[in-house]
Amino acid sequence: MTKKFRVGILGATGVVGQRFVQLLQGHPQFEITALAASDRSQGKTYAEACTWRLPGDMPDQVREFVVQAPAPPLDCDFVFSSLPGEVANTAELDFARAGYPVISNSSSHRMGADIPLLIPEVNPDHIALIDVQRKNRGFDRGFIVTNPNCSAIAIVMALAPLHAQFGITACVVTTMQALSGAGYPGVASLDATDNVIPFIGGEEEKVEAETLKLLGRVNGASIEDAKMSVSAQCNRVNVTDGHMASVRVKLSQSASLDQIKSALSSFTAKPQQLKLHSAPANPVIVRDQNDRPQPRLDRDAGNGMSVTVGRLLADKVFDYRFVALGHNTIRGAAGAAILNAELLVAMEKL
Ligand code: NAP
C-alpha cells in the first residue's frame, strides 16, 4: 500500500473545513493528522469545538483531535486552508515559509502573480508558477496553490471548453449564490427569507478577475490574462447549497448550437486521464430538460464535483447563453482543493 500524505486543515470547524473533514474520510492518498481553528476552538477536542452541520455524524476519526492554532509547526506533510481571508493572508505565508505546501481555498493569495489559481481540468500548466514562487520568495519545500472563488469555478469550467475551441471575446454572468457561501452563520435568516440580496462584498470583482487569470496562459514567470471582457453581477438567494449563474458569451469563431453542446458534454481533461480520485467522469454535464439545472436536483452531480449546464440556447444579443450550476462547498471549495492536491501529487509537486 502506498504511504498516505498526512494533512492538516486550517479553519477545520467552518463550513468548508467540515467539508474537508467529510471528503477526506477514506481518501486513498490523504489522512487527516491535524486540525486548526480560531482561539475560540483551540485546546478543545474537535467534537467540543465544532457543531457538525453536515448530514450524518462527525467522523469518529477526528472527534478527539485537539484543535490547534493555525500556525506552524503542525504534525502534517501539507495543509488545506479554509481560513477567512484576513487570517489566511499571514497564516498561509507562515506555513509556506516553514516548508509546508499550502493548498488554499481562501481568496487572499489567489491573484498573486506567482501563485497558481488552479482548476485541474482547465489550467494544470499553471502549476509551473510553483517554481517561480519558490524562487521569488525563497521558499524551500513550501508553496501556496489556490482554488478559485466558488462561483468563478463553476462558470469557468463551462467557459473553458468553449474558449479552447471557439474563443470567447465577451462574457456576461449573473449569479444566484447559496447561503452556505457566506460561511456559518452567514446571512441572517430575516435578511435571507423571502428575499434576494443583490450584493456580495468583493464577489463581482473576484469573478471578473479570476476568470481572466484562470483562462490565461503561462507567459514566462507569470500568467497573461485571457483577452476577453467579463462582466459579473452577484446575488445571494435563499438556497442552502449550490451556486447558479446565467451566462452569455460572444465567440470569436462561429459555432453551431450542436458544436457548443458537444464541446461542453465531451469535455474531459488531465484529471480524468490521470483518473484522479476526486475527478468526476464528466466535468460538465449538459441537461436538455428546459427547467434544469436546479440547485436541489443538480448540485450533487458527480459527487458535487461536476458542473451542470442547461438552458443552452442561441442568444439575440450575444452568441449563446446557458445556465451553469456547481456545488459551492464541494467543487467550489473543499472538493476543488482536494482535487488540486491530487493533481499536485500526480505531478510530483507534493
Ligand atoms: P466559516 O464557516 O466562517 O469558517 C471559518 C473557519 O475559520 C472556522 O474554522 C473558524 O474557526 C476559523 N477562523 C475564524 N476566524 C479565525 C481566526 N481569527 N483565526 C483562526 N481561525 C479563524 O467560513 P467558510 O465558509 O468555511 O469559509 C472559509 C474560507 O473559505 C473563507 O476564506 C471563504 O471565503 C472561503 N470559501 C468559502 C466557500 C463557501 O462556499 N462557504 C467557498 C469558497 C471559498 P472557529 O470555529 O474557531 O471560529
Shape: globular
**Strand order in space, largest sheet:** 7-10-6-11-14-13-12
Q: Helix proportion of residues, in percent?
A: 25-40%
Query: Could you say which structural class the secondary elements and strand pairing correspond to?
Result: alpha/beta
Q: What would your notes on this structure say?
A:
This protein has 350 residues and is α/β, with parallel strands linked by helices. Helix content is 30%, strand content 23%. The chain has twelve helices and 14 strands. A seven-stranded mixed beta sheet has the order 7-10-6-11-14-13-12. A five-stranded parallel beta sheet has the order 2-1-3-4-5, sandwiched between helices. A two-stranded antiparallel sheet has the order 8-9. Helix 1 crosses helix 12 and helix 6 packs parallel to helix 8. The longest helix has 17 residues. It is globular and about 60 Å long. The two termini are 18 Å apart. The chain binds NADP nicotinamide-adenine-dinucleotide phosphate (NAP). NADP nicotinamide-adenine-dinucleotide phosphate binds next to helix 1, helix 4 and helix 12.
